Amino acid sequence: MGLDLKNLFLENKGIKQTIFKNTFWLFLAKGVGILTMILTIFSARILGATEFGKFSFALAFVWMLAIFSDLGTSSITTRELAKEKENQKEYPAILSLKIILTAFALVLMFSLSFFITRDPFTQKIILILAIYILIESFLEIIFASLRASQRMEYEAIVSIFQSILLCGIGLFILFYFPSVENLSFVYLFVDLLALIVVLLFFHFRIQSLKLDWNKKIWQKILRLSWPLAFAAIFSALYMYIDSVMMGYWGQITQTGWYNAAYRIINITVIPVALIAQSFYPALSKFFIESKEKFQDIWDLLMKSMIISAIPLMVGGVFLASKIINFLYGPSFGPSIFVFKILILSAGIIFLNSPYVEMLIVANQQKKVFYVTMVGGIINVILNLLLIPRYSLYGAAVAALITYFVAFVLYLFFVKHFVLAVPFDFQLTKVLIFAIFSSGVMYFLISRSFIYNLNVILIIIIGILIYSAVIFILNNLENLLKRKYNYNIIINNKKTYGGK
Fold first, then answer.
1. Residue 360 and residue 498 share a domain
2. Cα 121 versus chain centre, distance
3. Which residue has the higher pLDDT, 377 or 8?
């Protein structure tokens, strides 16, 4: 029994088992990671919309610039190391490159903080959070190596450790020493401790950490990653520029309301990253070895996203007011309509993710860059037009339009530049099943005897209803298939005399 569990959750024994193992650990880590959402809720409640807005503004600013500490190198590292074990010898040079990029990003964040705000207190918060974010970014290059060998349980354990520690210390500080500055130092301390643990573990258990200042390898990695780098820059723009703009224009309280809704959205899209990370190594492997297996794995990835996205959008829009009031209280009422708009964006993010993965695996990173470039430009223009007039609501609409345009462009590029079927009959059937099941879920949870319950219970009931309907539809389909095949066999026997 113990050996079976070890083989299932700690060893790589086959394609499906490895994907299951990685998905399990990542979901477990992110499940525990919901503790950080609890910290966010209490941060908003205790600090208030204005102070929470300051924290959110500073965090959005440093996240937007954090891309310069990576420039797509982590994704390329995972892909290259997964393809050939021989590429492992390049890892010390990649690590050295990461150090240089991290130092550059820190200088950039510190310098631009004087232009984005004249408030010394906010500048101090930006510096503290900048160091925290860069440590988080540096951990990514370590995890990139572990992902390549499909040992994501290590990353999950570290993430669990961070979440528990951050939530515990963070709540203690909020209750007894509440301030934006103290909260920022908590984030920094926890990540610094995690970095030390990870570096020691990796050095002594995985491979010896060394630095190699090999410029040829740097050039190779940057040459491969530059489309992802520019894509990430524009992606960071339409993820964070709205909060930065609102903060820059003095809409600090509105930034707090906006980010209260946005943080929930960040939690809802966690499965996107988890599922994509679990499938990515297998997709990279079979894109080279077997087009049929590649298509099968990608179809499975897309089905997972469709089944997750549709009920998320339907249920999110319907329960928006109950969710916001339950988490933040009546003072965050302006966040309700923002949440309704952004939850639609979250559903589109689910659908976008498989197409992004396919383009990257197919070495079509430039197409990802083109899409995010267009999206970033559109988002900045829309924010410039909508935020001054509609504030946080304009920012939410800008995000929704941006993600929809990106979805259309990703679908176009996959269809025309990747030798795979982006959306076939089977996926259409899954989409129809998901829409129908979500409709049944909406109809039942909107009944007063369910809607008047606690919002957590409503969500659980909704998930159960949706899952049950999907299960019934799948079984009906299988039953009809068996009956159809049986009729064919009978007809053939009659036609050919039983031969």
1. no
2. 31
3. 377
CA trace torsion 117, 120, 123, 125 (10° rounding) = -130
Cα–Cα distance, 59 to 240 (Å, whole number): 9
CA distance 248 to 245: 5
- The DSSP result for 430-451, as a single string, is HHHHHHHHHHHHHHHHTSHHHH
CB contact burial 400-439 (16+ within 10 A = b; e otherwise)? bbbbbbbbebbeebbeeebebebbeeebeebbebbeebbe
DSSP 206: I
What is the DSSP code string of 144-198? HHHHHTT-HHHHHHHHHHHHHHHHHHHHHHHHHS--HHHHHHHHHHHHHHHHHHH
Q: Can you tell me which residue has the tokens 């659908």?
A: 351
Considering the domain boundaries, does residue 342 fall inside one?
yes
| Distance of alpha carbon 346 from alpha carbon 381, whole angstroms | 21
Residue 175 belongs to a domain = yes
Rounded distance between C-alpha atoms, residue 131 and residue 66, angstroms: 10
Q: Which amino acid is at 46?
A: I
In this structure, are 417 and 446 located in the same domain?
no
Q: Do 171 and 193 fall into the same domain?
A: yes
**CA–CA separation, 141 vs 156, rounded Å?**
15
Token look-up 């197919």 returns: 362
pLDDT digit string, tens, across residues 92-119? 888 899 999 999 999 999 999 999 988 8
Residue 239 sits in the same domain as residue 100? yes
Among 201, 86, 219, 78, smallest CA distance to 149 is for 78
- pLDDT tier at 253 (50, 70, 90 boundaries)? very high
Domain hosting residue 480, numbered range:
424-499
More reliable by pLDDT, 56 or 22: 56
